[in-house]
Amino acid sequence: xxxxxxxxxxxxxxxxxxxxxxxxxxxxxxxxxxxxxxxxxxxxxxxxxxxxxxxxxxxxxxxxxxxxxxxxxxxxxxxxxxxxxxxxxxxxxxxxxxxxxxxxxxxxxxxxxxxxxxxxxxxxxxxxxxxxxxxxxxxxxxxxxxxxxxxxxxxxxxxxxxxxxxxxxxxxxxxxxxxxxxxxxxxxxxxxxxxxxxxxxxxxxxxxxxxxxxxxxxxxxxxxxxxxxxxxxxxxxxxxxxxxxxxxxxxxxxxxxxxxxxxxxxxxxxxxxxxxxxxxxxxxxxxxxxxxxxxxxxxxxxxxxxxxxxxxxxxxxxxxxxxxxxxxxxxxxxxxxxxxxxxxxxxxxxxxxxxxxxxxxxxxxxxxxxxxxxxxxxxxxxxxxxxxxxxxxxxxxxxxxxxxxxxxxxxxxxxxxxxxxxxxxxxxxxxxxxxxxxxxxxxxxxxxxxxxxxxxxxxxxxxxxxxxxxxxxxxxxxxxxxxxxxxxxxxxxxxxxxxxxxxxxxxxxxxxxxxxxxxxxxxxxxxxxxxxxxxxxxxxxxxxxxxxxxxxxxxxxxxxxxxxxxxxxxxxxxxxxxxxxxxxxxxxxxxxxxxxxxx
Length: 599
Known about the structure:
49 strands; 5 domains; 599 residues; Immunoglobulin-like; eight-stranded antiparallel beta sheet
C-alpha cells in the first residue's frame, strides 16, 4: 500500500503552485504481533519560487511523529524543487479481528506570505489474519455419527487441535485441518466413548484449536463445547424374567393359587432370582430394580448373588386385570422393563338385608327374615367364598344384648338366606335385633328396630275403654291417628292440628274441649257430680254452634266401672240438653258435628 497526497497551494510572487505534500508506504505487517509498519516522507514543493519554512507538524493515529515549531529552512532563491522536511516509520496496532486504519495529517507555515498549508487523510490497512473460532455443525450429536468442526479462518491457514469427550479429555487429535475437521469415529473409538460414558447417557463434547500461518502461530488457543449422547435403545440391559405372588397367605389359602389376587386384600410380592439377574451393556454396571403395581413403585438395589424382592404394603384396590412390572436399571439410568398380568377377583363385604316385624303389628311374636349377598371369588366354575357364620341377638332398647344365636344360612351362588326366625318380645316394649354375617374375609352387621305393638282396634275388658291403633290410655275412646268423615279429616293427633283445640270452662266443674276445622267441630265434654236431666245452665261458644241439632251418646263411670249412659243434645244456639242417668257419676261424651258458621 503506497500513496502520496498534497496540501493546499500557496502563491509565492507570481507562482501559485507551491504546497506541502507527504508520501507513505506500507513497510510490512507482523502477523504474530498483529501490527503494521508504515514509512512516511514529508516535503515542501516550490514552483519557481522560494520561501522561509517554519512550524512543521506530522500527526498520525499512532501519535505525533514530527513537530518543529521553529525555522526549518531559510530563503534559497527561485527554483523548482522538492525540499525534504521529515521522514520516519510509524507502527499501527490492529484490532483483535486483524483490522486497522492509518490516519496521517501534515501542516507547514510559509513565513514570507504568512500562510499555512496542510491536509490529512484516513486509509484502511490490509487486514492481518487472526486465530480461528471453531464451531460445531450442531448442538447435540449421537455416538457413531460424523462430527463436523468448522473453522472461520480458511485461506492460507491450518489448524492444530483436538476433540474431547467429555470436555478436556482428548479422544482424537488433528494437525493440518483448514476449513473444517470431520471425524467419523471407528469401532475402537466408539467403544472408548462408551467406556467414558459408563454412568451417563449424555456428556460434553469439546474442541480446542490453535491457528497457524505456515510455521507461525496466530493468537492463542480457542475452544467450543456442545453435547454428545448415547442411543439408549441400543444398549438396554439384558433382562427377561421375574416372578411374583400374593404375600397375603390367607388369600392364597382361599384361592389355592398365589398368582390369583383378591381386591382389597392381596398385596403383591415380586422378585428377581440370581439366574434371571440383569446384564448391563457397554461398560455400564447393574444398579437397581424398580417394581411397580397398582400405582405404587418400590426400588431395590441390584445383587449379584442374592434374590432381590419387593413386597407392596398397600392392598390392590381395583378388580380385573392388573399389570405387575419389574424394570432393570443400569448405572446410566437406562432400563429394560418386563410386564406380567395377574387376575384380581372382585370382592366387597357381605350385603345384609333384615326384615323384622310383629305379627299383626301388635303381637308379642316377632318375625325376622334374613337375606343378602356375598362376593363369589369364582375361579373357573368354583366359588371360593362361603358363609362362615350367620348370627342374631336382641335386646330391649337401651338395655344389654342377649347372647348370639347361630343361624343356618343357605347359599346359592352369591345369594344367601335363612329360614324365618321368631322371637317373643313384650308387645309394650321397644327392641333392637342385630344380625351379623361373616364370609371368609370380612363381616357385616345390621340392626332392626321393633316398636311396641300397635292394635288396629282394642276394647279394654278391665277399663271398659276403646282404643283405635293403640291400647286405650285416655278417655273412653283413645285414637292414635286422624279421624275422617266423608273423605274429610275432622280430627287429628298431629301437633299442627291439635294446636287448634280450645279448653272451655263451662262452670259447675264441667270442662269442654272444642276443635273446629274445615267446617267441622269436634268436642269432648266431661263433668262429675249429680247432674239431673233437662237443659243445662251452661252453653257452648257461638263459634262452635252446630248447623243442625245434634245428639251424642255418652257413658257414666263410677268406681272405674261403667255405671250408666246418657244423651247430650246440642241446640242451634249452643244450648246443651241432657237425658239419661242422673245420679252422682263421671259423665263423658265426645263427637263430631257440622259447624253452623265460619267464625
